[in-house]
Structures are given as structure tokens and as C-alpha cells.
Amino acid sequence: MRRSLTPVGVLLVLALFTDSPCSARGSSHCRSTDSEDMRPHSVTISEFGAVGDGVTLNTKAFQNAIFYLNSFADKGGAKLFVPAGRWLTGSFDLISHLTLWLDKDAVILGSTTSKDWPVIDPLPSYGRGRELPGGRHQSLIYGRNLTDVVITGDNGTIDGQGDIWWRWFRTGNLNYTRPHLVELMNSTEVVISNVTFLNSPFWTIHPVYCSQVAVQNVTILAPLDSPNTDGIDPDCYISTGDDLIAIKSGWDEYGTAYARPSTNIIIHRVIGQTRTSAGITIGSEMSGGVSEVHAENLQFSNSSTGISIKTSPGRGGYVRDIYISDVTLVNVGIAIRFNGHYGEHPDEFYDPNALPTIERITVKDVRGENIKMAGLLEGIEGDNFLNICLSNITLNVTSASPWNCSYIQGYSASVDPEACEPLEEIISREHYSDCYHLTNHLLSSSHQKRSAWLLSQ
Ligand SMILES: *[C@@H]1O[C@H](CO)[C@@H](O)[C@H](O)[C@H]1NC(C)=O
Ligand SMILES: *[C@@H]1O[C@H](CO)[C@@H](O)[C@H](O)[C@H]1NC(C)=O
Ligand SMILES: *[C@@H]1O[C@H](CO)[C@@H](O)[C@H](O)[C@H]1NC(C)=O
Ligand SMILES: *[C@@H]1O[C@H](CO)[C@@H](O)[C@H](O)[C@H]1NC(C)=O
Ligand SMILES: *[C@@H]1O[C@H](CO)[C@@H](O)[C@H](O)[C@H]1NC(C)=O
Ligand SMILES: *[C@@H]1O[C@H](CO)[C@@H](O)[C@H](O)[C@H]1NC(C)=O
Ligand SMILES: *[C@@H]1O[C@H](CO)[C@@H](O)[C@H](O)[C@H]1NC(C)=O
Ligand SMILES: *[C@@H]1O[C@H](CO)[C@@H](O)[C@H](O)[C@H]1NC(C)=O
Ligand SMILES: *[C@@H]1O[C@H](CO)[C@@H](O)[C@H](O)[C@H]1NC(C)=O
Ligand SMILES: *[C@@H]1O[C@H](CO)[C@@H](O)[C@H](O)[C@H]1NC(C)=O
Fold first, then answer.
1. Where does the signal sequence lie (predicted)?
2. pLDDT-based confidence at 234, cuts 50/70/90?
């Protein structure tokens, strides 16, 4: 595994944006993204009996330390310091007004015993576990109903030791859906920065039903062949990155009923590779709706797909007002992929007539080297994807038929190789407003938005 780790690199360099009075660049005005945040109280995990030998199970020590620190929640909060060492633990819960600080050479190691990852209820917007019916294993680091929680440090590591989980997955020995590495649910003012995440059993960072989430300057690594180790899966109703960044919002009838859209998501400067999946994906779970995703300055290499939107009849919901620009692709199979028939349903109770609405998707300023296919854009018969606008796209493509489009409608300008027939019409003054544009530059426009993310350097 060590061997396969080296080339895996999913490096995400991300930063936050919220409606708080933060400056866009540099977080000097933004208390919540300042890793030197002044928690007046601090304890070290070893004070609670933890042993950093990589063998001793420290779940109780983490739980006790955090229980103790709860008494400082109304006194400016507290910091749990994790020093150098290998700190083996099962799942533990964070609290509000807490900073979990991982020093240089500190490694929090996930237990390789499944019972150390308790089984919790499925997400209401999924109705069941993503992989198996019923509950799901709780993430290693979990939080619910929290305000003001920070996971940061001096590039310490949170290592899920997911290898055992990937093996259980592959050999059919799971009883419940695999755990994420970090999941924060129904929480706000979340900052995750300056840490490295390794070998998540399943998705790596999963904010769900959250607002004001910032993920900045993190490195996420997992073997290229590890199953479903998505980097960041923001699944949050007002905010929030297999896929390096996957934006989701609920699954079929459960997602429709729960109705929490993922919106105002800003992604800035993400560098990475993923062999079998995409750099940025929206869906396939999108039944609660996804809108206003602004992604800029992306560099994806050695990936099967660059930019991807996945959905299916039965999902309902919408994906609209998406703006992706300034993208560099190197050695990528399909630069832009829309899949209207992704399939995968939670159960047989979904409504096959619930058709998703996919509209106002702008992709511009893309350059690609060694691309097999420019676009495989498949909408849904009777449910065309509308106002797909491509501009300033230059791809060095090896396929003789670089575009393959069906059931889509839109416009293009300066696309090489020339866009497919449904997008041939030039973006002109009359239908300029059909396309989704940013009224202001990304960074300044985000000032007016509530609870957005900015992923930035
Ligand atoms: C990350 O670490 C650097 C260097 O210590 C520090 O300047 C910066 O403020 C930290 N950023 C965040 C968001 O924690
Ligand atoms: C979310 O958290 C808030 C307080 O933190 C709580 O009042 C609310 O009931 C929670 N909602 C859910 C669905 O957990
Ligand atoms: C979060 O809030 C919900 C709804 O109020 C409640 O049912 C649940 O027990 C809370 N969970 C935690 C861990 O506080
Ligand atoms: C990113 O993290 C590294 C390691 O913790 C740190 O040296 C660097 O200053 C950080 N960069 C930023 C922009 O925060
Ligand atoms: C943080 O550590 C990881 C591995 O431990 C390394 O790959 C990464 O480059 C480091 N990040 C920074 C910014 O130093
Ligand atoms: C699944 O359940 C079986 C029977 O209880 C148990 O032996 C096995 O260890 C469980 N698998 C996991 C991954 O927990
Ligand atoms: C892409 O893969 C090639 C061949 O495996 C490798 O040499 C190159 O370093 C990879 N590129 C990146 C950016 O990792
Ligand atoms: C086209 O996109 C490239 C980046 O791929 C950018 O450098 C260039 O400025 C863009 N051209 C125009 C006219 O916007
Ligand atoms: C595509 O890349 C190859 C190899 O780098 C180069 O020889 C070729 O001229 C490029 N084609 C175009 C259309 O830029
Ligand atoms: C276009 O894609 C469809 C579906 O993948 C495939 O059946 C068809 O053969 C492709 N057409 C061309 C011309 O490549």
C-alpha cells in the first residue's frame, strides 16, 4: 500500500468563504479561519491517559478529554492538542467551540476493528446507507448540531487505515455502509485546515446539512484504486469539495422529501488526480437540488473525467447555475461528461417520472493536453439539459469524434475542437442571458452571498 500511496496524490488546496466579515484573500479578518484562534483553554490528549504508540486504543481518552473541555464551551472554547505520536482510536464526537489541533508528526489512526466505529442512523436525505440498507458506521471524527468547530494544526495527519474497510467492501463482508473519515452534520462555522487526510474508509470529508464550512490547505491521499474515497463531499443545504470534489444533495425520494439543496458553494484552486473518477462531480445524488456552484482554478491530471454531472430519471431535483472556469486538464479521458442515466437507486420506491432539471451550466477557459474525448454529453430524452454554455475551450484531443451529445441544448464560443451540433449556436447578445454568468468576479461576488465556500490558496 505504501507503494501505491506515493502516486495517489489528491492534493486539495482550498479556502473558505462565509457571510461573516472576512476578507477574501488572507483570513486576517476572519476569526473562524485563523488557525491561531485564541482558545483560552487547552489540554493535551496524553493528560487523559492516551498513549501514542500506535497500539493502545485511545477512544476513551479522546471522549474524556472532549467531555472535560465541554465545560469551557461558554468560556471561549477550548483546544485539544494532539502531540507527535500515533494515536489509535475509534470514533469520537466533537463539541461546539472546540479546536482539535494536530501537531507536526501527530497521527490520529482509525481503529481496524469495525466495532470501534458504531452504527448510526442513515441520513434522512438518503433513507438508508449509501452502500447497504440500514444504518452506517459513524465517521472516525464526528460532529452533530455544532457551532464553531476547527480541525487544524501543523500538517498533522488523520489516517483512517481504510485498507481493511476496502477489503471488507471487496469481499462482501460489510454489514453496514462504510464510515467517512470526518463527518459534520447540521453544523455551522466549521474550519478544516492545515491537516493531511489519509486512507479514508469511504468519503474523506463529508459536511452534511451544514453552513459556513471552510476547507483550506488540506492534503487528501488515498490509493488511486481505493473504492469511493472521494475527497470532499459537501452535502450541505447552504454551503460548503473516487471524485476529488463531489457535490451532492440527497438520493431520490428521500432527497426530495428532505429537500435540502446544496447551494452557494465556492471552490477555488484544487489540484489533484483520480484515476477512475472525476476532478469535480455534481451528483449523482442531487435530489434536493444543487445550485450556484462557482469553481475556478482547477488542475486535474491522470483522471478518467475532468468535469462531471451525473443524474438519472428518478432523482428529481435540479442542477442549475453552475459556473466552472479556468481549468487545466492533462491526460484525461473525457474532459466534460454529463450522464443522464447514471442509475443507482436507494430502493424500488423511487418515482421513475421524477426527472431532474439540468440547466444553465457554464464551462469556460479550459485548456487540455492529451485528452481522449472533449465531451460526452448525454441528457435525458424528453428532458433536455438546457442552456449549456461552453466558451474558450481548447483541448488537444486524440479521438476522431471528440464530441458526442444527445438531448442537450446550448451555445458555444471559441471551442476547439468545434462543439457538437446542439451547442453550435454562438453565444450572442440575444441569448446572452440564457447562459449563467457571474455578475461580478468570483471573489467579490461572494461577499454578497451567504455561507459560501471559497477553496483557495
Ligand atoms: C495554516 O498554517 C499556516 C502556517 O502555520 C498559517 O499561517 C495559516 O494561518 C493556517 N491556516 C489556517 C486556515 O489554519
Ligand atoms: C440542528 O442543530 C440545532 C442546534 O444546534 C438544533 O436546534 C436542530 O434541531 C438540529 N436539527 C437537526 C435536524 O438535527
Ligand atoms: C441534534 O439535534 C436533533 C434535533 O434536535 C436531536 O434529535 C439530536 O439528538 C441532536 N444530536 C446531538 C448529538 O446533539
Ligand atoms: C499550508 O500548510 C502547510 C503545512 O501545514 C504550511 O506550511 C503552509 O504555510 C500552509 N499554507 C497556507 C496558505 O496556509
Ligand atoms: C503535509 O504532509 C503530507 C504528508 O504527510 C505531505 O504530502 C504534504 O506535502 C504536506 N503538506 C504541506 C503543505 O507541507
Ligand atoms: C459482520 O457481521 C458478522 C456477523 O456478526 C461479523 O462476524 C463480521 O465481523 C461483521 N463484519 C464487519 C465488517 O463488521
Ligand atoms: C500522471 O501519470 C504519469 C504516468 O503514470 C506520471 O508520470 C505523472 O507524474 C502523473 N502526473 C501527475 C501530475 O501526477
Ligand atoms: C481562455 O482561457 C485561458 C485559460 O485556459 C485564459 O488564459 C485566457 O485568458 C482565456 N481567453 C479569454 C479571451 O478569456
Ligand atoms: C497535441 O499534442 C501533441 C503532443 O504533445 C502534439 O504533437 C500535437 O501537435 C498537439 N495537437 C494540437 C492540435 O495541439
Ligand atoms: C455516442 O455515445 C453513445 C452513448 O454512449 C453511443 O452509443 C454512440 O455510439 C456514440 N456515438 C458516436 C458517434 O460516437
1. 1-24
2. low
Q: Using a 6 Å cutoff on CB, does residue 239 contact ligand 7?
A: no
Q: How far is the CA of 240 from the centre of ligand 7 (A)?
A: 30
Rounded to the nearest whole angstrom, what is the distance from the C-alpha of residue 34 to the centroid of ligand 1? 7
Grid cell for residue 76: 471561549
Domain boundary among 216, 237, 258: 237
Instruction: Please give the distance, rounded to the nearest whole angstrom, from the Cα atom of residue 236 to the centre of ligand 2.
Output: 14
Residue type, 201: P
Q: State whether the beta carbon of 367 lies less than 6 angstroms from ligand 8.
A: yes
**Domain containing residue 14:** 1-237
Summarize pLDDT for 104-158 with one digit per residue, the tens.
Answer: 999 999 999 999 999 999 998 999 999 999 999 999 999 999 999 999 999 999 9
33 lines ligand 1 (CB under 6 A): yes
Based on the structure, what is the number of domains in the chain? Answer: 2
Q: For ligand 7, say whether the CB of 331 is within 6 Å of any of its atoms.
A: yes
Nearest CA to ligand 6 atom 14: 114
Residues 228, 319: one domain?
A: no
Higher pLDDT among residues 438 and 186, named by residue: 186
With a 6 A CB cut-off, is 144 part of the ligand 8 pocket? no
In a domain, 68, yes or no: yes
Q: Does residue 286 sit in the same domain as residue 202?
A: no
Active-site positions read: 242
Q: Which ligand is located closest to the Cα atom of residue 143?
A: 3
- Same domain? 232 vs 273: no
| Same domain assignment for residues 273 and 330 | yes
